[in-house]
């Protein structure tokens, strides 16, 4: 069935191994973030080998699918009160920033005779989730330590995802300092100091990650072999673990410029076109409902993506050296996290896990 997304397990496992070796240089633990591919159980099971310390996801529905795996499971997105019962049931650790929610988690954990581990999030300037004021954070710690079914195991932060603030020695050093202040004031030991995501890899590689950070949460670095602070590829990793295959449903010679007065397209935007004369245009059976078209590139380098509506993607195949026919399959490399996310979230894209293929693999 098409469109089909092929996920190369061999390459992903290699990337996990490579990244763990980088983290090991500073004795850091690794959480693999599974949300981009909707925590497909077969994929998670295959890549969560001896190199992985935690499984992390933003959706409790995804963690629910992974209960057979023994690794500790982290809920990354701060919980909704309405899902607190499932949070304590299906996750071992949750990231939190609201005391009301923590109280509810304590109640639900008590109901099932369980102690639920939490990490308090600290906002270091990216302005997404977390406590911005250290005094407020310390007051929350006071309250949390009095709860019998909640255990505070650490603090964490998120950078680059919303405000695009880069990790640095200064802001992550501040996180370590806050952790030390909490330990000294409350006479406790925090085992979990989470220094962010794939955007922190560059600090690690430059030997600038502050001492005291205990773990990183890695998604894109594993999936695409890329650190996300500057978008640089990580040496000795694969960058093409996800490939998309689509079927041609129309081929026609047509003008490159639409004919008539141009208004808004189906997504409310006014498009602009360049007049290139008559071109050979192919349509494949996929659209913006299924994929971020700016995140994929044809494996035939002489094909260009012109655009897409909800269900059709239009290609310029004029300059291709290949002769294509209706029903032929075109391949695309998925080059961004957003592309993986949209394709895996779409129910209309078949997912296929592939193994081995060692003779076809080359490090990029």
From TrEMBL:
Q: Which UniProt keywords apply?
A: Isomerase, Pyridoxal phosphate
Stored Pfam families: Ala_racemase_N
One GO cellular component term of this record is:
cytosol
Asked if the record carries the keyword tRNA processing, the reply is no
Specify the domain of life of the species encoding this protein.
Bacteria
Instruction: Please give the Gene Ontology molecular function terms for this protein.
Output: alanine racemase activity; pyridoxal phosphate binding
EC no.?
5.1.1.1
Q: Where is the Alanine racemase N-terminal domain?
A: 7-222
The record's section on InterPro entries has: Ala_racemase, Ala_racemase_N, PLP-binding_barrel
Signal peptide positions (record): none
Give the first-level EC class, as a single word.
isomerase
PANTHER family given in the database record: ALANINE RACEMASE, LYSINE RACEMASE
* Name of the protein in its database record: Amino acid racemase
């Amino acid at each position: 069935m098409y469109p089909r997304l092929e996920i190369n397990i061999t390459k992903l496992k290699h990337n996990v191994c490579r990244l763990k070796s980088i983290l090991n240089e500073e004795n850091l633990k690794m959480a693999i973030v599974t949300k981009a591919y909707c925590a497909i159980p077969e994929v998670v099971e295959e890549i969560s080998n001896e190199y992985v310390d935690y499984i992390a996801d933003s959706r409790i529905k995804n963690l629910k699918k992974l209960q057979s795996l023994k690794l500790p499971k982290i809920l990354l997105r701060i919980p909704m009160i309405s899902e607190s019962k499932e949070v304590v049931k299906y996750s071992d650790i949750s990231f939190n920033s609201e005391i009301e929610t923590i109280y509810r988690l304590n109640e639900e954990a008590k109901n099932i005779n369980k102690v639920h581990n939490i990490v308090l999030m600290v906002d270091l300037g990216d302005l997404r989730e977390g406590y911005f004021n250290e005094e407020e954070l310390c007051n929350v710690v006071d309250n949390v330590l009095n709860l019998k079914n909640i255990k505070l195991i650490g603090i964490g932060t998120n950078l680059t995802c919303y405000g695009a603030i880069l990790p640095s020695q200064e802001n992550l050093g501040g996180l370590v300092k806050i952790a030390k202040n909490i330990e000294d004031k409350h006479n406790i030991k925090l085992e979990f100091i989470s220094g962010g995501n794939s955007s922190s890899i560059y600090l690690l590689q430059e030997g600038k990650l502050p001492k005291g950070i205990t773990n990183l949460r890695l998604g894109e670095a594993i999936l695409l072999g890329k650190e996300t602070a500057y978008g640089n590829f990580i040496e000795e990793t694969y960058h093409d673990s996800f490939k998309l295959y689509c079927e041609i449903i129309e081929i026609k010679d047509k003008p490159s410029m639409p004919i008539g007065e141009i208004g808004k397209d189906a997504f409310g935007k006014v498009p602009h076109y360049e007049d290139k004369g008559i071109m050979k245009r192919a349509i494949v059976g996929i659209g913006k409902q299924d994929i971020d078209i700016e995140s994929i590139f044809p494996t035939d380098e002489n094909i260009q993506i012109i655009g897409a509506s909800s269900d059709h993607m239009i290609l310029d195949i004029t300059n291709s050296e290949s002769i294509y026919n209706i029903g032929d399959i075109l391949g695309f490399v998925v080059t961004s996290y957003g592309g993986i996310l949209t394709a895996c979230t779409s129910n209309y894209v078949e997912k296929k896990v592939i193994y081995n293929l060692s003779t076809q693999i080359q490090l990029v």
